[in-house]
Task: structure prediction
Amino acid sequence: MKEGRPRSFYVLAIFFAAYTLFLYGPMIAIYVLSFQGPQGGLTFPMNGVSTFWIAKLFQGTGIVDLGAAFRRSLLLGIIVMIVTVVLSVAAGMAFRRKFKAQSILFYSAIASLIVPSIITSLGISLEFRIIDDVIKGTFNENFETSMGLLTSGLGAHLTWTLPFGLLIMFAIFNRFDPRLEEAARDLGATPWQAFRHVVLPIILPSVIGIGLFGFTLSWDELARSSQAIGAVNTLPLDLQGLTTTVTNPDIYALGTVISAVSFTVIALALGTIHMLNKRQAAKGSDAGKGLV
Amino acid sequence: MDTSEDILQQASPDLVRGSETARRSKAARLSPSFISWLQAGPMMLVFLAFFLIPLVFVVIVSFWDYNEYQLLPAFSGRGYTDTFEGCIAQLPDLCTIAKTYLKTLKLCFLVWVITLFIGFWVAYFLAFHVKSKTWQMGLSLLCTIPFWTSNVIRMIAWIPLLGRNGLVNSGLVKTGLINHPVEWLLFSEFSVVLALVHLFTFFMVVPIFNSMVRIDKSLIEAAYDAGATGFQTLVNVIIPLAKPGIVIGSIFVITIVMGDFITIGVMGGQQIAAAGKIIETRVNALQFPAAAANAVILLVITFLIITMMSRIVDIKKEL
Result:
């Protein structure tokens, strides 16, 4: 390997750089355009630089009630994140040994991931419509609907985030050394102590990764929400609604604000993962360091 | 959070058997299979309530009747006959549904070929050319971050570039390559394919990369020592070993594009018909049985494609 890099390296490095530019270029364009001057339009060149459109968004004078949709999406995202982490870690622990219905759960998760979102969304909406009809018919004629952000909406988002959580848990336990747990057991740890003090600290960085997936996938979710969210909209649904009507940069401003939340969450999660990994490297083991 | 902690408390039955303290605790009285149910049950319930039962309802409702404003729970094939209207009468011309599916399959094929090409070489670069683990992590992360941001925003992002007065058009006019801005850049099949590739190449990169990093490097050296050219090594060693990743990535991309209605809607200016869009249109018209019938058709076709592809590789073994 001392001969230097082959020519294919440089060709593919340029290809990779072009792909990265393709990924990020357009996004950066709209972040820049959201700082258009008050007279600015939807395209370059910039007509002055200002925070006019972003400020307009927060004044609530725009087309959508940003504040309410923002709070709804944030609430849903946080709940989805918590539920995804707890259920994925629990189910991941179950998959470490054989149990009945194991393959049913596995194939449900895979199917939930690849069945087109519009079908899942339609199914949930039909399910809730039928539930509503039953309630209206048998209990209460004035019943409105059981569909909503935290019923059908939460369920729809979980069908999308849980498969990712489960697959990440598989990846974790594929490289997990069970002897660490055996050692804890030999030292007299209860199952909970072994989980809390041995397993959890080791898998914690990846568990934060599950949380990151849970929140960001919910925060940006669209296809599954479309039919199943009920009367109120989430932020991405409002944004999608704007794409057909809007002619000035407040759509970019909204996009920039939504992305800012995503990037804050990504940075927080990655920072925490990095910190935990460093701590593990520093304190995790003194093997091979000799006697101190 | 009590319940979840309880579940986790029963973490491992092996522990229970091994430890004297634990033997006397509550955990010892629970059988391992009961503990598994406590751990996996909640997730199973979510899939049951929000995925499996809804799918059953889709199938049932597809056989219901409907009028202008409500569902009629009586058996009827109207959802299907409405969908296939004119398919026999109009022969040899294609009916709407057949045309729509052909168009969807065409988009699907284009996106599949392009994402496979890009995904393969990006994964190849990351797996074989990037030697340091830190760089590999960093560059993988660079590919993943956009996946954690909003799809709609990533679609809208093309507007200032491809629009009538966008960067691409004004650039082309300035350089004198064209006299007038071209219209087909945005709200066209071109922009739909571009946006789908932009959004979903990630689903190709990850599984192919996973397959490639598992390839034993000594196999490649062996091929090289045996006199294989770089191209022969690629075709006879790397591609066969990366096949599971290629198939899984392809399944992801194909099923996403088959059911897509948002990208096709936004980037096609709501003018391009597609399998997913029919369902949306029917729902908006409150024709739920027809929507459900279309969902069943889409499900069957998607399932056939996946079955064909999973013949090539055992998915469960690869994860």
Observations:
- The mean pLDDT of chain A is 86.
- Chain A has two domains: 1-63+246-255, 66-244.
- Residues 250-283 of chain A form the longest helix (34 residues).
- Chain A touches chain B through 107 residues (CB under 8 Å).
